[in-house]
Amino acid sequence: MIGVAAFNILMIGLAVGIWAGPVPVRRVAMLLDWLHSIIGITAPGLEKARLVALIWIASMIVIVDGLVALLVFLTWRLM
What we know:
The chain is 81% helix and 0% strand. By secondary structure, the chain is an all-alpha fold. The protein has one domain (2-78). α2 crosses α3 (49-78). It is elongated, with a radius of gyration of 15 Å.
């Protein structure tokens, strides 16, 4: 449970850092370019880098929390 809370705190902190501006846009764009090239899709431009990074972070939070909730629900129902 501490790991899930730490994950959420770190991801929200990263999102705030990207949104507020301490994290440079060039670095965010470079990481998004790397991530999108691995997946094989077109990377966003510099003007959309912050928004796309926030969408990726929100998606990861939803996926991880959803999987943890599903694991807890299934183990609670099976025990």
